[in-house]
Structure formats: structure tokens, C-alpha cells
Amino acid sequence: MLPPSRRTPRRVAGVLAVAFAVLGPAGGLPGLGAGPADARSRTELRAKLTKESRKLAPHSGSYVVDLTSGRELFARRADRRLSPASNEKLFTTSTALLRFGADGTFSTGARIGSGVAVDDKGVLRGDLYLVGGGDPSLNDVALKALAQQIVDRTGLRRITGGIVGDESIFDARRGSFDSGFGPDDDLGGQLGGLTWGHGRATPGGPATVAAARLQFFLAQLKVNVTKAARTGLLTSAPGGPGATLGTAVSPPMATLAAITNQPSDNFYAETLLKDLGAREGTAGTTAAGTAVVRSTLADEGVAPAPTIVDGSGLSRTDRTTPRQIVTLLRAMQRSPVAKVFGASLAVPGRVGTLAGRMRGTAADGRCQAKTGTLHRVSALSGYCRTVTNHLVAFSFLENDMDARSAKAVEDRMVPAIVSYRP
Length: 422
Hints:
The chain is an alpha/beta fold. It has two domains: about 230 residues, DD-peptidase/beta-lactamase superfamily (Beta-lactamase, 3-Layer(aba) Sandwich); about 140 residues, CATH 3.50.80.20. The chain is about 30% helix and about 15% strand. It has ten helices and 13 strands. α1 runs antiparallel to α10 and α3 packs across α4. It is elongated. The N terminus is likely disordered.
């Protein structure tokens, strides 16, 4: 049953255990049988998709291409600009993988000011700065390990100052475009350059919460911290930035993309967008991140440019076409990160937001796709491996109709694609 929200539902925070399904270079998804006995010719597939697409609202569009042969299989309003809902995350995660690489990571550093040091008695006379690197996944496991790393390296026993959270890699806006950049429940937490526990925040902001959490783990190691955790800037430390006492490194981008796409995590998507702005653009802002995404899509042949105002698809101002999404899917399949991009997507009957859909159909385990849901908006785009081992890319976008009804049609169209036989 669809949630009563007008936007995508809040997702479970910090999911790091991801089941990957990778498109094999010479076959279907791993663990599959021989495939369905029935098969459809191109003419029969077009007839089936035409029949089903007529049940969709006028504000809908479909596009299906056989990537193996390069042949267009079906198009209906393929150039209509529509709200993609969470299919927007395809733009964000593909850009992050292309720009940062599958092995790219984000680092959170424990640093001190210049001229400050831990003395031979284990005393740090000053503040310890926890400097955020835009890691959306920072959690207790990482901070506990960071605290142990600091103590092991320095013999730290007491801090005369406090733990200061530095989130300056990003701006201080806590939400995305759709909420006017204010706090937004649909993100499941507040955005920031230094966040812990999926953006948990107090009136002091998420960086203060992260700093307090590091202080907690230092206390467990018998390190006394004199002052309460707070937010501040390392550049304001006496003498400016100094040594790094420890570093917490995020999971690789391949994992972060999967955490974003499979459960459709809005917080991760918006954080990755700001990461793109901070590292590949002009600033750690939503606007700078969207500029990087648009530039990357243009490089990959997606033109004209979609309208992109956020990383998650929460805003209805986002607009794209089925053809633009399939163009991206084709480009990603040819890229060095093709496998990890495919593996980041949900799998019908198996993984993510599609785990409960299309079970027992021809699409079960044979496709990888991204869902999208807003009030009266549904979307589904991705790849299918057909019964003859052709790789097909598809995009179905539906606006101004009941999302549940639209998904029922999607769940008949996708299995039909799998049964395509050239």
C-alpha cells in the first residue's frame, strides 16, 4: 500500500548491508534458470506495450531500446517532460560514480590547530576538531574506531577544550529544493557536511551531534573532555589548521550508490549531490551539485538537459523524459562503472524497492531498475536481460494518475520486455 505522503516515504537510515546483483558480461543475472518458455517478437512486444500504455494517463511516457542491437523497441510520448520522482537518483548516483569512481570515498578527520599537540602526559591543550567530509554514512562503528585510532596514535588522556564539529565543506541548509532548503522529514534527517546517524540533529545542528558522539566514545576510552561539544571552524583555531590525529573513511562509492538507489534514500541522494558540488563544482551546495550533474549528463549525450533542482526527486520541478533516461542508461552501460551502477539498482522479486514486485514473473531476478513514487506520480527505469540474452533499457514515467494503478501497469510491461525475442 502506498504511503499517504505526497512524496516518497522516509527510508530506513544507514543501511550498509546491500545485496548486489550484477549484470554478467555474457549472460543474465546470476542464479537464474533458463527463463520463461513464452517469447514475443518485436511486433508482439510493441503490441503488448501499446495495449498496456493506453491504460496510463495522458501525462505519461515510455521508451524501450535493445542495447545489444541498438534497435528501438517501443516509444510512446518518449520526449514528454515529466516529473521523474526518485528516478532523479539515477542522475545523481551515475554522476557520483563517474566523477568519484566506484572506489571513491569520503573522509572525516580528527584534527587540531597548528602548534597544538598531545603532550607526553596525554593532554591536548585546546580543542579537537571533527572535520566533516560529506560522508552520509558516518555512524557509531566509524566514530568508535576513530576514537580508538586517536588514542592509539597519541596516548590521549585529556582535552582541555572540547570536540568541535566542522561542517564547512557544505552550506548550512538542512533540506533540499522542495522544502525551501529547510528541515524536511522526507529526508529522514538534516543535511550537513558533518552528520551522524542519518542526519540526526539538535538545536545545535547535526555537526554538534556528531562531535558529541565522538566525545562519548572517547569517554569510553577514559579520555576526559572538559567542554561540551559544539560547532565551529578549524580555520578559526589558533594558528589555523594543524595535524590530523585520525581519519574515518566511508564505504566506497559503489556501496553508497547502492544504499541510495536500492531503498531509495533521499538523505544519501541529497548529500551526494552536495558532495559533487563541493569536490567537482564551485561549492558544497545543492545548486553547485546540480550544475555538476547537468554537465556530466551533457558529456554522456543526454541532451537537451533535464530540469534538475535536487538529487532525490522530491521536487516536482524536476523534469525529464523517458528518452533522456534511456540515453543515460545506455551511456552508463558503456562506462567503466557499468557493473556497479547496475548493481546499485533494485531487482524485481529480490532486492530493494522492487523486492515485493513482479515475484514469479519473467522479470523476477532478470531486471535491475529504479522506482519512483510521489502523490499521483510513478516511475520505473532500468535494464532487463531478455530470454535471448539481449540487454534492454527502458523508462516508464507516469504523472497525474494514481501511482498504485500506474505500478500495476509497469509490473506487466517489464515482464513483457524480458520475453522479447529478436
